């Protein structure tokens, strides 16, 4: 069920949170119904469209800062609320407390679309966040590297319908990226988070 990929800090994978049928249906549903956005990032005074599409969703108070801007989340879409309940139940069974109140959805049209190196270590996530990532569509590797070169970089391949859990310490000690690859096919990921209201930006 939950395989341990790394002990310290903990990284867990459930290769089949969803059945292939459920994952297919959810992929096409989300692709069709969501109002996907392609915001721009400001880098050295120039605006660059991000190399993927995305959408923030969550409770109204779960405001989020991203690239110097504050986002108010879209309201929960029913299929995503259902997925949240299901993965929270699965994690509770494994003794992992969550309380997710927001999710970042990422849509990669093909292998060219990507996300660069980062840690999800924004202040509003608190010091040791647990982040749960559901993957749908094309199987691609999430690449990890140690911030202080404690070990070699490694790939985690994320199958259609899988759940990857980044436990306490993963953001502090590692970075991750979805690098471009010559792979065809749409991929959507959902990264569930808990934004702490008292740390949430108020503008
Ligand atoms: O698409 C992925 O699997 C990675 C997404 C990610 O790192 C994020 O949403 O912060
Ligand atoms: Fe991330």
UniProtKB/TrEMBL annotation:
Alphabetical UniProt keywords = Dioxygenase, Oxidoreductase
Stored InterPro entries? AlkB-like, AlkB-like_sf, ALKBH3, Oxoglu/Fe-dep_dioxygenase_dom
Biological process GO terms, please? DNA alkylation repair
Specify one Pfam family.
Answer: 2OG-FeII_Oxy_2
Give an example GO molecular function: dioxygenase activity
Fe2OG dioxygenase domain sequence ranges: 99-196
| SUPFAM superfamilies, per the entry | Clavaminate synthase-like
> Could you tell me which PANTHER family the record lists for this protein?
ALPHA-KETOGLUTARATE-DEPENDENT DIOXYGENASE ALKB HOMOLOG 3
Put simply, this protein is called Alkylated DNA repair dioxygenase AlkB
Say which species the protein is native to: Halomonas shengliensis
């Amino acid at each position: 069920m939950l395989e341990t990929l790394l002990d310290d800090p903990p990284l867990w994978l459930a290769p089949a949170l969803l059945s292939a049928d459920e994952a297919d249906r959810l992929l096409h549903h989300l692709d069709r119904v969501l109002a996907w956005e392609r915001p721009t990032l400001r880098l050295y005074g120039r605006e660059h469209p991000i190399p993927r599409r995305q959408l923030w969703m969550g409770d109204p108070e779960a405001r989020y800062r991203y690239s110097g801007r504050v986002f108010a989340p879209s309201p929960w879409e029913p299929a995503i609320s259902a997925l949240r309940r299901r993965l929270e139940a699965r994690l509770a069974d494994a003794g992992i407390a969550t309380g997710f109140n927001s999710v970042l959805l990422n849509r990669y049209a093909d292998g060219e679309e990507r996300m660069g190196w980062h840690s999800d270590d924004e202040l509003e996530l608190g010091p040791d966040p647990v982040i749960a990532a559901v993957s749908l569509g094309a199987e691609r590797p999430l690449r990890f590297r140690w911030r202080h070169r404690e070990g070699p970089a490694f790939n985690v391949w994320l199958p259609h319908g899988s759940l990857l859990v980044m436990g306490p310490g993963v953001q502090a000690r590692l970075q991750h990226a979805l690098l471009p690859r010559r792979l065809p096919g749409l991929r959507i990921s959902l990264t569930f988070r808990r934004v702490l209201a008292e740390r949430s930006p108020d503008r």
